[in-house]
Amino acid sequence: MLVLGIESSCDETGVALYDTDRGLLAHRLHSQVAMHRDYGGVVPELASRDHIRRLLPLVREVLGERSLTLQAIDGIAYTQGPGLAGALLVGAGFARSLAYVLKIPAVGVHHLEGHLLSPLLADPRPEFPFVALLVSGGHTQLMHVAQVGAYETLGDTLDDAAGEAFDKTAQLLRLGYPGGPAVSRLAESGDPARFKLPRPMLNSGDLNFSFSGLKTAVLTLRNRHPEDAARADIAAAFQGVMAEVLTEKSLQAMRQTGSRRLVVAGGVGANRQLRQRLVAETAKLGAQVYFPPLDLCTDNGAMIAFAGAMRLQQAQSGARAFSVKPRWDLQELPRA
Ligand code: KG4
Ligand code: ZN
To answer: What does pTM read for this prediction?
Structure first.
C-alpha cells in the first residue's frame, strides 16, 4: 500500500510517500522558519497561506523523485490535529479533496502519534512494547506503547513543554526563534559546571515534569549575569539540567514498567547532549534506546505517512472483520 503523507500543523510543510512493503520512498519538507523569524514566533495566518503555496509543488516533487503519478497512491494521511486550526485545515482540505478525486481513502492522523511511531522508520526498528519519551514544542510525555493505538500516559508536564523551555530560554538569552537548536549550539562553547540550576521534579516520586521554575531560575541567573560572556555558560547549565531530568525520568519509567526499550521522539529528541546521555545511561541498564533519523525528529510528512499507513492497514483488515457487542451501553453511541 502506497500512502501519501501530509503534515501542515504548524510552520513546516511536510510531504512523504511511504510504502508498506518498500518503506519510506521519498520525503520533502519546506520550513517556514525564515518567514516567521522577524516576528519572533509563528504567525498563524502567514503559516496557513504558505502551506497553500507549498503543498502541491512538494507532492509533485516526491512523486517525481520516484517517477510515480498520483494514480499510484492507495491512500492519503494528513495531520488532523493538534496544531494551528488554519494550518491544519489547509492540509486536511487538500488531502480530502485529492482522495475524493482519486477515489481512495483518506485518514486523519494525530500529530503526536506520528512522532511516537517515527522511530519505527529507523533501522534497527524497536519491537513493541516500549517506553516512549515524547518531547516536542508543545508536549513532554512518557508513554507506554503496547502496539499501534495502545498508548498509556505514564507522565506528563505540569506546565511548560521541554521544547517550550528551550524556546523560552533562547528568548531570555536573545537567541531568537527557533530556540532549541540555537541554545544547543551556544551551549557547546559553554561551561556547564559554572552555574548551578535546580533539577525540577527529579525526586517527585512520579513520572511528571515541570519546567516553569527552571525558566524563572534562568531568568534570575541572566539578570545577575547580564554580560555577553555568561550566555554560553547559562545555555550549557540549562541544557545539562534538561538532559539530566529527561534521562532520569525515562530511566524511572523503564524501571517502573520493566521495559528494556526506550524510544525518543519529537523535536527535542534532536538534541545531541540528550541523545548522548540517554545512550550512555540506558547502556548501563543493559537497555536499548531508539531515535528517529535526525531529519525525522522535528515535524515531517514521513511520520504522518507511516502512522496513516498503519491506520489504513488496520481499517482494511477491520473492514473484513466483524464483532458483536453482547453488552452495549446506549450512551457509547457516537452522535449522528
Ligand atoms: O516536534 P517539533 O518539531 O514540533 C512540535 O510538534 O512541537 O518540536 C519543535 C521543538 C521546538 O521547541 C524546538 O526548539 C525544539 O523542538 N528543538 C530542539 C532541538 N531541535 C528542535 N530542542 C533542543 N535541541 C535541539 N537540537
Ligand atoms: Zn511535532
So the answer is: 0.91
